[in-house]
Design brief:
By secondary structure, the protein is mainly beta. Helix content is 13%, strand content 51%. It folds into two domains: 34-153, Immunoglobulin-like; 157-276, Immunoglobulin-like (Sandwich). InterPro entries: SOD-like_Cu/Zn_dom_sf.
Length: 280
């Protein structure tokens, strides 16, 4: 049998616990709590190969979105501005949604997003269909240096891809590949990678009609290949005449890719390869 004093202490303790539980639930109800919807996007290194990470979008119960950037490799003491920009990363675009700067010591930034910088409401669902990308910059004084970057929303890559060989032609030692990666919106990210290109050069590249053996006119212009890196990245959405042209079109197209020596010497082909229906 419990004596009166013991019963009193137990009753008082239960009252305190029940009051605490009630108060905690009430306070939680007033806060924007996360729900089950979560989307993670990759942020890839740009200027510094040691810096990379993720951007995690979480739907909150008040309609807002929590965006957490987590990077590895950022030096302690730095503050790195971050934004959502319009268009794809390879096309570039203006700042549309400003995010909290990434703390270099933790590599972390958390922002609650309810609207764009222009004051337009934007929901979690809107962001998952957004035509945009994230940039993390070196500093407020050097926004031109990008330390991490990644496409979001409709520009996200699906994981489907097709690669074609670009064989050596007029210049000995230059060859490589062109990789087309499907985006969620049906467009494609095209990456040309060549080995053997001389530093400082710039090599125009195009999709041409017909097979390489037949020859044909230019229908799509890639961003030029940087001779120093041997790389070019382009967004493929339309042909040069405005005709819609996406990932699925590339796979069946009657065409080929030429990489030229220079803008003033398009006749000299440094690498070439059939694509689409002409590929082996």
């Amino acid at each position: 049998m419990l004596n009166y004093f013991t019963k009193f202490r137990i009753t008082a303790l239960l009252l305190v616990l029940s009051t605490f539980a009630f108060t905690s639930c009430k306070e939680d109800d007033d806060l924007p709590l996360p729900v089950k919807d979560v989307k993670v996007y990759e942020l890839y290194s740009v200027a510094d190969p040691n810096i990379e990470g993720t951007a995690t979008f979480v739907k909150l119960n008040d309609g807002a979105t929590s965006i957490t950037i987590q990077l590895s490799g950022t030096p302690a003491g730095g503050m790195h501005p971050a934004h959502i920009h319009g268009n794809t990363a390879v096309e570039g675009g203006g700042i549309e949604i400003s995010l909290q700067p990434v703390n270099g010591a933790s590599g972390r930034s958390v922002t609650i997003v309810r609207e764009t910088d222009a004051g337009m409401p934007v929901s979690y669902e809107d962001l998952l269909e957004y035509d945009g990308y994230i940039n993390v910059h070196l500093s407020e004084d050097d926004l031109g240096t990008i330390v991490a970057q990644g496409d979001i929303g409709q520009n996200e890559l699906t994981g489907e891809s097709k690669q074609y060989a670009l064989e050596e032609r007029a210049v000995e030692g230059i060859s490589g590949t062109v990789l087309f990666e499907e985006r969620r919106n049906g467009e494609a990210l095209a990456t040309i990678f060549l080995t053997g290109t001389p530093d400082g050069g710039e090599h125009p590249a195009h999709i041409h009609q017909n097979s390489a053996e037949e020859g044909g006119g230019i229908v799509y212009t890639f961003n030029p290949v940087n001779g120093t890196t041997g790389m070019s990245k382009s967004n493929v959405a339309t042909l040069d005449d405005g005709t819609p042209f996406g990932y699925d079109d590339v796979l069946t197209y009657d065409g080929y890719v030429n990489v030229h020596l220079s803008a003033t010497d398009l006749a000299t082909i440094v690498a070439q390869g059939n694509i689409g229906s002409n590929a082996d």
